[in-house]
Amino acid sequence: MPVVRQVNFNGDEIGEFELCGSVFDAPVHAAAMHQVVVAQLANKRVGAHNTKDRGDVRGGGRKPWRQKHTGRARAGSTRSPIWVGGGVAHGPHPRDYRQKVNKKVRRLALRSALTLKARKNDMVVVESFKLDAPKTKDMISFLNKLGEVKKPLFLMHESNGAVIKSASNIPGALVLHVDSINVYDILNHTRLIATPEAVRRIEEVFGA
Fold this sequence. Notes:
The protein has 2 domains: 3-45 and 99-206, Ribosomal protein L4/L1 (Ribosomal Protein L4, Chain: A, 3-Layer(aba) Sandwich), CATH 3.40.1370; 47-96, no CATH class. Helices cover 34% and strands 13% of the residues. The protein has 7 helices and 6 strands; from the N terminus they run ββαααβαβαβαβα. The chain has helices spanning 21-24, 30-43, 103-119, 136-146, 161-168, 183-188, 196-206, and strands at 3-7, 13-18, 123-126, 152-156, 174-177, 191-194. The protein has a 6-stranded mixed beta sheet with strand order 2-1-3-6-4-5. A hairpin with a 5-residue loop joins β1 and β2 (13-18). α2 (30-43) packs across α3 and α4 (136-146) crosses α5 (161-168). The longest helix is centred in the middle third of the chain and has 17 residues, at 103-119. The protein is elongated, with a radius of gyration of 27 Å. It starts with a strand and ends with a helix.
């Protein structure tokens, strides 16, 4: 049964927190994580880029000069891609970048990412965030007591405006609701800081 440190908001260790082995001690599947991360980044792309081909540019209907005996290269339109003001050759057009990933692969990748955090001691369970009002200074003090944390990911079981605003001014910090957990954000942040309720929710949903 894997365990991680459990601390209070003062940064003091109050014990160990037991994790579900099927979620936090699962086989690490690098290919699944790669596939899910690539798909997640691709799905964020809007795909609204567009350029005008030579047929879309206004003008250019008349032949600039006659075909022969001018001493110049042949030209049929002033909107050729090699002309200034002409169309774009093979330019991008609107498209859908979305990639489909099977549910089993997504769950496998998420369990792999969580297992890596637990094995590398990059996961901490915090008893509760005792913040009556947003205060970045208190949040930074908490992170300093945990050690050098450059890009923390806070995983919450409920919406907490004080935590969100306190972390918003910390470079690289991100606050996520447990229902929005994803592979990219877990791997992209150096430390996973979760509430006990959030961890139990993950085990309930992604456990065997």
